Structures are given as C-alpha cells and as structure tokens.
Amino acid sequence: MVRINLLPPEVLEKRRWEKWYPYVFFAFAILAAILVLVYAYLMLSGGAKNAELQSLKEESQALQTQADAFGIFEQKEQQLAARSTVAQKALASRLQVGRIAEEVSLVLPDEVWVDSMVIGETAGLRVRGQTPRSPSQSMDVGYKSVAKTLVRLNELPDIYDVWLVNALNNIYQRPATETTGEAPLPEDVVAFESTGKIAAPNPPAANAVPAVPAPPSTGQ
After folding, report:
1. Distances (CA, A) of 46 to 33, 39, 43, 53, 57
2. In what order do the strands lie in the sheet with 124-132?
3. DSSP letter string, the chain
C-alpha cells in the first residue's frame, strides 16, 4: 500500500520542525535554571561580602575611636619630651656650684682653712681664709701659703682671673674644747681674701668624662 501525502510543502516543513520544540524548551529551561542559580549565588556572595565589608568598617571605626582616645597620651608624651629637652638644656647651662666648691676644697693647701666662700655666676668667687704664720713674722711661711692658694685656684678650669684682695697678719683664737673647757692659746695667722671669675658653663658633650682636679701637692 502506497501512502500519498497530499499536504503542501510548507505544512510538511512546519511539521518536521515541531518535533524539536520540546528539546528547545527543555534546553531553555535548563539555561534559565542555571542563570537563576548563578544569580542567586552572586546575590548571596555579594551579601556576604557586603556584610564582611560592613563589619570591617565598624571594626575600623572602633579602632579609630580607640586611637583617638590614646592620642591624648601621645600628645602628653610629646609635651613631656619637649619639657625634658628644655630642662636638660637649662641644667647643662646651670652653674655647678657644688662641683666648683668641691674643686676648690681639693686644691687648697693643707695648712689653709676657709672662713667663708661665695660662688656665683655674676658675683664670681670670693674666698676668705686663714693660714698659720711664723712667730717671727717672716715672709716664708704664711704668705707663701696664700700665694700657693691663689696659684691653685687660678689653675682650676672653672675659675680664672684670681686676685688677692688683701692679706693681713692676725691673731686667731680657737674655741674652747669640750673636754677641758679651756680655749687654746691664740695663734699667729695670715688672714686673706681673694676673688676670681667663674667661667660660663658649657653643655656637656655626649659620653664626656668629667674632669677631676689634680690632688694638692704636699711640698711647700
């Protein structure tokens, strides 16, 4: 039996493509599902990233707040460092009265004692002292001690331009002793007064070793 299709060619061509429609719809559905899944993944991932970014921003703001709170301490530290620098400069340029007095005491001859000593940056050095003299009033004992005192004072690094104001023969009466209650016999002494100028203090250099005055000699 022979089939004869009397349909026009246009209808036959249309019927031939109709069997592919389900496959096309199925492929489109799969593609649409994939696109939906990708979109959902991107949305979820973007939301997580946004949440993480927001968390980092909040943490950064909290850290910035803490840094601002600690900023006052940094400012105080800078002020303290500036004040410390000013104080160190002031101390470096301050006259070391104690050190100068110690140097003077180290170079004085053994037979000389000081009644008073004034040290000032503007007033300079003023020393009043006494030293024994021989009963014969010879010039080889008491006044030599006075001259030796002036020479040693002038050799100190902080003192210069030392002059003798006066030197006079005098009588020195020692106070009474506690044991006997009697005063010793008066002694013949040379009372003298000398002046000098104080060198302007210089800031100490780094790692500098302070100079130590030479010990007084024992020779006359």
Report:
1. 20, 10, 5, 10, 16
2. 113-120, 124-132, 187-198, 159-172
3. ------S-HHHHHHHHHHTTHHHHHHHHHHHHHHHHHHHHHHHHHHHHHHHHHHHHHHHHHHHHHHHHHHHHHHHHHHHHHHHHHHHHHHHHTS--HHHHHHHHHHHS-TT-EEEEEEEETTTEEEEEEEEE--TT--TTSHHHHHHHHHHHHHHSTTEEEEEEEEEEEEEE-PPPPTTT--PPPPEEEEEEEEEEEEPPP-PPPTTPPPP-PPPPP---
**Residue whose C-alpha is closest to residue 125's, from 136, 140, 133, 114:** 114
pTM of the model: 0.50
Distance separating alpha carbons of residues 212 and 104, to the nearest angstrom: 12
Highest mean pLDDT among 39-48, 73-82, 162-171: 162-171
Q: What is the secondary structure of 38-76 as a DSSP string?
A: HHHHHHHHHHHHHHHHHHHHHHHHHHHHHHHHHHHHHHH
Structure tokens that stand for 76 in this block: 């105080």
Tokens 């008491």 belong to: 142
- CA atoms of 192 and 167, how far apart (whole Å): 4
pLDDT tens across 165-215, in order?
A: 999 888 888 777 767 667 677 888 899 999 999 987 765 554 444 444 444
Overall size of the chain counted in residues: 220
